[in-house]
Amino acid sequence: MILYLAPISAEVQMNVSPDEIKKGMEPWFAWYKKCGKAIIDTGAPLGNGVCVDKKGTAKSQTEVTGYSILQAKDLNAAKEMVKDHPHLMMPKSSIEILEIMPMTM
After folding, report:
1. What is the DSSP secondary structure assignment for residue 95, as one 8-state letter?
2. What's the pTM value of the predicted model, to 2 decimals?
């Protein structure tokens, strides 16, 4: 799983005209095409979060703005796949790669 992190929320990023959204998504569609079948789930933007703990709830402070799920041979292959990811064009953005671990019962 890859998580997209940015200092600007997905809600703010998407608060542009439909034409600007379409233009902004073009590099993403090119990346999806480049990765092909390795993309298991293209993902979606994330927002309007809430943090829940034993004391109650508060507005989320996370910088996670979206996710995608991809399949790779190993972590190095996944790193190579996101090396030129369009998300990284945004200043102070980053991508976290996390392995989805199998559950054993």
Report:
1. E
2. 0.90
